[in-house]
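Researcher: Watch the backbone:
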Amino acid sequence: MRNSDVLLFVVAIFLFISCKKDNDMPEGKVEITMLDTVNKLRAAGCICGEDIMPQVPVLKWNVQLADAAAAHARDMYNRNYFEHVSPEGTSAFQRAAAVGYEGTTVLENIGRGYKNTAAVISAWKASESHCKAMMDPVVMEMGAYSYGGFWVQEFGK
């Protein structure tokens, strides 16, 4: 094998690995981009379905809500289901309480198969109920997580 062939082979492998990495779905904490994107939406106001949603206060990141989101994303992935309520009947509120969240309100958005935060937020914004959860003036905190193509947002007060 000539040196130029070896160099070409190494470059091809590098490009293959680089391209594959770019297409991987993010896993784990998505707090910076998720919180920033949702807060920009809340600060600007938007239209959810046919309803005009005015500006609402920005959200703060909440670790317990992020932990609840992580648990639910992993559970859906590991047990191959896609629902707000687990097969045993556990709700978003119950999952948040189980990790120590003491709020009185919990709302949840779930998504599956999106490659990045912008794509899942765009899909949620296009869905009236998901959009209204992101724009709900009652909630003051948020946690989110992505795992194996499953996305979960938890909102609370």
